[in-house]
Amino acid sequence: MASSAYRLGWLMAQLFDEHRLQVDELFLPPFNPDVQLPLVAELPLPRKRELALADLDDLLAGIASGVHAAEVKAAGTAQEFDAAVFGERVQALHQAILDRLVSDDQQISAYQLGLALSDTCWLATPQGGPQAFIVMFQRGQVASLKTWLASAGDAIPAGSAGIIGQSLENWQDWIEVNAQNITKDWGSGDQAQQIVKALHIQAMAWHSVLVGDPQTSGGPSVNAWIQTATSVVRIARTVTMSALRRFWWLMAIIVVVIIAVLVLVVVTLHGTSRAWASLVWVGGAVGGVGVSFRSAVGKAMSGAESEVWAAAKLDAAAWNVTWLPALKQSPSQQRSLNRAGVAMPAIRPNLEAAVPAGAAGAAGAAGAAGAAPKA
Asked: What are the C-alpha distances in Å from 92 to residues 67, 87, 95, 151, 233?
């Protein structure tokens, strides 16, 4: 089954660090047990562990036959739960899974992707300092994730590698613009909590893509397309300016030649009719050159049209599942984000003010997958 190895890696990371099984402490779900049945996120940790271990058996049977989790299940469901013993059993099971999958490049890449992507989203904490967050998005770290995404092949849903890779780059661009403020203000106010909270919601969105969740495998939202269109316009402007900077001398020569011809016509020719006829001829020649140039460019671009459209669709799909922190940005930061093509998350102060701080709830987190920030 597609994505089973990835799901196994994600689940093993959750079992080894059970904090990842719990609702983030930054969320305070509006759960009333008198009138609501609990969601999985609202169950006590031992019950969540039981469900995770049941899922573990199914995943092992699908991709790692012969590897059994009996000892892990026994330690995880013991009446006197011992976290140290449970961790040792999970470690041993992890080694057994690696031995079983090592001969299958796609499966072991997908398994490691599950582990590493979970680490990317969960190792940063408000208490851990800004570097623990920033280091997870450095070039080497993201390159490793992209390698596993590419190597996973058919072990993850088709198209998901490009979407997650582009979404990771969206985070890199956002961090690049905000790195100085993140480092300076991490310990003051609630900035660190907002960043970590956004990263945990992002984990749900990325995970949904890689398990083939229909909610995230559908078409991008209008807001995602708006951000993509903005990026395309920005790229076209950048390419145009780059061409002008590289070939300004050619444009200057053309302008000088045209001016010289016009001056020569006006100075040497006598008679209004002859002068106008010559000017019309020069204008027609210049116009013909321009039409020929546009035609040549059009033919050259027509061959790249399908690639440009594919890149635009990928960009829209990536923004559709990118969830960036909703921090206030200075005018200079906004300009930098615009130049980098980063979408500004929509902040709705009146809506947020209507709910106690931190009460986004599991429902809001579950709805994060597929939600795109407004451009």
From this structure: 11, 9, 5, 25, 52
